């Protein structure tokens, strides 16, 4: 019996039937047409749809395994990096043996790009791609769920109703993650919190660690031994430009003003598309050191993850200019030498680029936009003070 059939990624023998279904999915074809030829799709959808199907069919010809499907995804990823980033760098992989599985717990800024950049870094350094945890709130359209599961994503059932159903869903998720790591030797990517860090503050939710602990065999292993078995590796991802900064600033502003914020239908899918298409500037991914110290509580594990993510987060000029504009201070210059050395060009060009970026955001939302970029600097300064 397959206890994880409704949440796990698709297997090789499921790829061909799913692709056949997708090639006849009108919503997928219309979405792809809207991305590639929006004006044609708007006025002549019935004309464009067969053309898109023909292109996809040609690209997917002969694809019968997950790895082959991810080779197609790689082509799009290569193009995205080439056209929307000015520089992509990786550090920390020397800390890891790519021959064994890891539980990568990452800060979370972009729905699709965070695990995509992690995959890109691993693939181009000889590692395998990861299994990606993704909330079912992002799968409002069936074709989206199919595409995600073809790309080695597994589903987090956040929409489960009632305490019993929620408990059962998270226990099954915990068991699946452990089964993937220990039995199938697959590396997992998991965000450090539910939802993106829209305010630029990267903090691990202890509830994530508590969920993982639901698969601990308490009669056979201590808490510390269980955490070490998981092979937790903190991952810090930074973007010079957040393609969704204006949308995040708007949401944060409205939430503060109204006390709540209701997402529009398919808003998350629109965020995914905006993140992929938008300019990101310099992007850096750092793989931390595996957690191997003794722990007593999930909170201690969360704090250890946060410590590495804050320490290894690669600041960008946009962070510094935002911090100076928000606080009027330049005490960021007291940060460790290696942090300052890693900074991009702190010159008039980068300052002008940041000011132009901020000016494009509605004035009433700019305070939140500044905070999005400034908060990583504040976190590093706070860490320095407590060290």
TrEMBL record:
The keyword Ribosomal protein does not apply. The keyword Acyltransferase applies. It holds the Pfam family Acyltransferase. It comes from the Bacteria. GO terms for biological process: D-galacturonate catabolic process; D-glucuronate catabolic process. One of its GO terms (molecular function) is acyltransferase activity. Keywords: Acyltransferase, Transferase. SUPFAM superfamilies: Glycerol-3-phosphate (1)-acyltransferase. InterPro entries: Plipid/glycerol_acylTrfase (IPR002123). Residues 87-190 form the Phospholipid/glycerol acyltransferase domain. This is 1-acyl-sn-glycerol-3-phosphate acyltransferase. It comes from Litorivivens lipolytica. The lineage of its organism: Bacteria, Pseudomonadati, Pseudomonadota, Gammaproteobacteria, Litorivivens.
């Amino acid at each position: 019996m397959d206890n994880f059939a409704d949440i796990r990624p698709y297997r090789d023998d499921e790829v061909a039937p799913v692709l056949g279904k997708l090639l006849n999915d009108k919503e997928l074809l219309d979405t792809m047409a809207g991305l590639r030829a929006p004006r044609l799709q708007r006025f002549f959808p019935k004309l464009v749809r067969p053309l898109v199907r023909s292109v996809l069919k040609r690209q997917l010809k002969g694809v019968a395994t997950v790895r082959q499907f991810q080779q197609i995804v790689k082509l799009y990823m290569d193009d995205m990096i080439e056209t929307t980033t000015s520089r992509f760098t990786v550090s920390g992989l020397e800390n890891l043996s790519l021959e064994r599985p890891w539980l990568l717990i990452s800060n979370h800024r972009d729905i699709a790009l965070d695990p995509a950049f992690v995959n890109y870094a691993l693939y181009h350094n000889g590692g395998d791609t990861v299994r990606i945890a993704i909330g079912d709130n992002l799968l409002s359209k069936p074709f989206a769920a199919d595409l995600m599961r073809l790309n080695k994503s597994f589903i987090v059932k956040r929409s489960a109703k009632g305490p019993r159903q929620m408990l059962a869903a998270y226990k099954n998720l915990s068991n699946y993650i452990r089964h993937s790591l220990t039995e199938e030797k697959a590396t997992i990517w998991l965000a450090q919190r539910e939802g993106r860090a829209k305010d630029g503050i990267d903090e691990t939710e202890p509830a994530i660690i508590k969920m993982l602990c639901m698969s601990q065999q308490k009669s056979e292993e201590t808490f510390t031994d269980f955490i070490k078995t998981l092979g937790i590796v903190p991952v810090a991802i930074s973007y010079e430009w957040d393609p969704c900064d204006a949308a995040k600033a708007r949401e944060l502003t409205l939430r503060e003003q109204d006390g709540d914020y209701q997402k529009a239908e398919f808003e998350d899918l629109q965020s995914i598309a905006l993140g992929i298409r938008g300019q990101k500037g310099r992007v850096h991914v750092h793989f931390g050191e595996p957690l191997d110290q003794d722990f007593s509580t999930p909170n201690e594990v969360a704090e250890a993850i946060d410590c590495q993510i804050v320490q290894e987060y690669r600041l960008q000029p946009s962070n510094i200019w935002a911090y100076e504009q928000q606080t009027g201070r330049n005490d960021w210059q007291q940060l460790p030498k290696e942090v300052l050395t890693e900074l991009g060009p702190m010159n008039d060009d980068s300052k002008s680029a940041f000011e132009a970026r901020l000016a494009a955001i509605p004035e009433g939302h700019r305070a939140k936009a500044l905070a999005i970029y400034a908060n990583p600097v504040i976190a590093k300064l706070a860490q320095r003070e407590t060290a």
